[in-house]
Task: structure prediction
Amino acid sequence: MKNYEINCLVSVELGDREAKNFREKIISFIQKEGGILIGEAMIAKKKLESAIKRNTLAYSVSLGFQLAPEKITGLEKELKADKSILRYLLLHHRPRKPAKEPRRLRRIVKKTISKTTEPKVELKEIEQKLEEILNE
Result:
């Protein structure tokens, strides 16, 4: 099972109570496909920047869930069939892997470190050199 997040814009014609019921409807779609809810479903009324199907206001419903990848198509069919959904966005959350240094970069760093390490100069040698310069 993989982690997903769904964001839906729902028509405001539903009303507040029906928008909350719509959230339950999406949860039932996910559970019908064998998914598990992992995030709290949030509902907010938003003003849209541009009209979608002649609507300038919409309810935004978003929630996180786990679902097998082969079941996503069934969930999308359910979402497309619902006429109250203006738009939806389904996101897959991949776990982030720590970035590794490329091998080439590691070799370059090692070479520059080995080239820049020069033998240490003794303090006595530095003092003698200073005295020579000052005496001139």
